[in-house]
Amino acid sequence: MTSPLPPSRRATAMALAPRPSRALRPVPSPSAAAAALLASASPLPASRFLQLHAHLLRTGATPLAPAAASAFLSLAAASLPSSRALAVLRHHLTPASVPSTFSCNSILRSLSEPGALSFLRRMRGLGRRGNAFSLAIILKPCCTLAHARQLHANVVTDGHLRDALLATSLMRSYATCGAGDSAHKVFDEMLVKDAVAWNVLITCYARDKRTKDTLRLFDEMKGGESEARPDEVTCILLLQACTSLGALDFGEKVWEYAVEHGYGGELKVRNSLITMFTRCGCVEKAYQVFCETPRKSVVTWSAMISGFAANGFGEDAISAFEEMNKSGVAPDAQTFTGVLSACSHSGLVDEGFRFFDMMRCEYQMMPNVRHYGCIVDLMGRAGLLDEAYQLVVKEMKVAPDATIWRTLLGACRVHGHVDLGEKVIGHLIELKAQQAGDYVLLLNTYATVGDWVKVAEVRKLMKENGIQTTPGCTTVELNGELHEFIADDDSHPRKAEIYGKLDEINRHLRIAGYVPNVSSELHDLDSEGKECALTYHSEKLAIAFALLVMPQRRPIRLAKNLRVCVDCHNFTKVFSGVYNRLVIVRDRTRFHHFEGGQCSCNDYW
DNA sequence: ATAGGGTTAG
């Protein structure tokens, strides 16, 4: 009869079978036979190994002869948990019985990171330096800065800098402990810098949010003296950097390079490109790339769905989701994040709840914090504030994060729900996550119900605690140059023209029915004073400037560091109709496309 | 002789 297991499984089963008789047999010492026996032994259960160890000590078989010691220590490292193994190793490592480099490496492989490092130190102290393998083994899990530094020293003194893989591994270790500068130093020291080394360096910069340096590296890599040229991984990393910078022009240059060098068909590159376009507000370009991508993965679909969502095209996001289902690609958690955020950004309340149910029932997925965040937003829109609060504190299976509370706080402001707003800020404080913007939301909530006494209280509280609000700031990109505006800005060289233009725009918009929304102004001014303060918000100044300098028919692209305020939102909406201009505003979380007096996002205020 | 190590999509 043949065994039911395939040959490979049979071998594993045999290895797993206990072999007590051999392990407990008295070990003659010192003898080559003992070494051979130990060397051939597979890892033992810890208890059995300790029995063997005790037996050796009892029978006076120690100190072991060098060959036997090598084998015995390897067996110890393989059989015992790291700390336990280390104690045994310490006991048996003597100048007379340092295992061979090969054995040392197999011991290193069995130990966990701190143990391995201390063993390496010990063996080096006993004159066994180890080789590049030894360092590579420890570098793999190395994740503390002090350890990385020690290994770096070893790499240098042992002359392994020529080994590109080892050096890159060291860079990675530095990068994971947040020491980007040290990683850079290793890179500088490297004798041969290949593309992967460059890519790791780029990853370091990206991780440190040094996005502009990241872009610089691309040019350096293309034209530098180094042999390495950007590969598809480089393109991916750069497209990601462009995504976070909103650097559309640079992103397109990277794509051009990718196509020229034969990386244009790489799915990962295309997926990064789709994201880059959507996060620069170019949904059409993203969609074109998406359509021209033949074998779309769940990542491709999700990128497009989230891209539609972030730009306020909720219906398109939903149809993409349906099309995805038809094409047979299964959605995952991130796909649902995209769909749900599409519903929340576009105010599609019923659809949102439908997808939330679909996700849980049809796909048996556990919603995560982000999913709940969308649902809380939807419930806020539907005016179900107390229900949303109950959901967060009672029903959610995951711990609520600051974003969830902030979403709820935003809803409190819209609905003037002061009591809940106070509770929510309490939760934010409990999480030690309260930001200036949260106090502003609370303050807004009081302002909405006209409770100026409380407004003053919050203001005082903020002052006492030294909470600084971030000044609103809007940037316009013009021929690759960034023009920055803050409220009541008077630093721009063309300020007279800009203010003149803004006054003219204001007159035209009022005729068209624009009414300043004074609830956006936080100060307890009289209503005329409020109008004045609103008039020169940074976004309006930026629009006036853009109108002055940008040729007709080109979209006006703005980027804001805060959320668009209600009044500016209204203003821009009416502006896009009266002046017949497309205005694309990127704020902290999404894009607003203003066209023909409408906005793509269905924000509720 | 044997053994080992790096970057990457939503």
UniProtKB/TrEMBL annotation:
DYW domain mapped to chain residues: 513-605
Designated name of the protein: DYW domain-containing protein
Keyword Endoplasmic reticulum: no
GO biological process: RNA modification
PPR repeats: 194-228, 297-331, 332-362
Molecular function terms from GO: RNA binding; zinc ion binding
Pfam families: DYW_deaminase, E_motif, PPR, PPR_2
Organism of provenance: Hordeum vulgare subsp. vulgare
PROSITE patterns on file: PPR
NCBIfam families in alphabetical order: PPR (TIGR00756)
Entry keyword set: Repeat, Transit peptide
Domain of life of the source: Eukaryota
PANTHER family the UniProt entry points to: DYW DOMAIN-CONTAINING PROTEIN, PENTATRICOPEPTIDE REPEAT-CONTAINING PROTEIN
